[in-house]
Write a structure and sequence with these properties.
This protein has about 400 residues and is an alpha+beta fold. It has two domains: about 160 residues, Sporulation related repeat (Alpha-Beta Plaits, 2-Layer Sandwich), CATH 3.30.70; about 170 residues, no CATH class. The chain is about 45% helix and about 15% strand. A five-stranded antiparallel sheet has the order 8-5-7-6-9, with helices on one face. Helix 7 packs across helix 8, helix 8 crosses helix 9 and helix 10 runs antiparallel to helix 11. The termini are far apart.
Amino acid sequence: MKRILLSVLALVGFTMAQAQMLSQPKDNNNIYTIQLGAFEANVKQADFEAIRSYAYVYKRDGQVFVGGFSSEEAAEPILAKIKTKGFDDAFVAARSLKAGKLVYVIQIATKNAGEPIDWKNYSRVGTLYTMPNGGQVRFVHGAYEDKNDANVKLKDIVALGFTDAFVKGVKDVQLNPITDFETGDKTLLPNKDITEVSPRVVPPSYSNVSPKSVNKRKSVIKLQEALKELGLNDVVSDGLYGKQTQLFYDKAVKNNRRLATYSELAQKNTGFEGWEDGRLLLTIAHELSIKDGDKAIVADLFNNLPTEKLSEKETNTALNWHSSLWKKLEAWSTTGQYNDQVYTALKVAYYRTLVHLEDYYASNGIAGEAGTALAVSVIKTLIADDFEGFN
């Protein structure tokens, strides 16, 4: 009877603690965690067995932390319990959400603190992070800057058996990389994202590229959508640039009246060997330019492509220019049938060039957003002058 009474009291105490945490006011500007301090490099999860049932224990930037909380008040009861176990120097630390960037992740599972974790199973989804939340921890795959990219990957993860997985938006500062401190074994560290591939040398033509040899990318989806807008309804918008997308692109350039005309005009511009898509893009941009007089031909740009990553400021400048340009062009396309046709032709040439440049930079070790920003900066150099003042 005494044992039953103690169990009931423990359950009530746990329930009341949960209720107390839920009732605390949420701080939308910060997330909170309990910092235990710095420990030897060979420190193990077993060293914290006495507190593992309180909240998820993890390592980040050489420090050991416990849990994740929506407010400092919510963390205090757990901190008090931790200190009774000898961790006298533990304290509540805040991380600013304002400093974080919105990304999209795929949540695959949630566990209570102290429960066994099947790292081998979870690692099948690819890159993995944890998100401690009170007495629980969420396991998420990611991260993606574009929600559509996350939704594409979600289908692969569901097919692996994670049928309850879903996409959610979070701040990147909320994500904790997995280390062997958490898994207890380096061989159990989650693998790279299953859509990732090793860098490759990009040939002048895509004719030998297999659909599975590149990442799923937003730029490719945009190109595939543009090809569909030309009436090529069999194009699959899967974000992979392979033989089929190349064949549809070649077909569009040959058979679409606008693209065929621009392609013929583009032949007059020499010096774009291996970058015919860039030449086509420049030709259409020159035709749309509101400036009078002769237009500069910058074919030599592709023989002297920049090779270093952009600074954060330069990256923002390039990506903001890209976003602003397409907003203006989309609005312009709605003002007439001719404008809409030219808009779609430009879209095909622009995103084909962007995909080509992204692959070039990926083959040189600059992938992801850094590669996209660098590719956009090249396109900006190529055509920005033609669209200056374009409204």
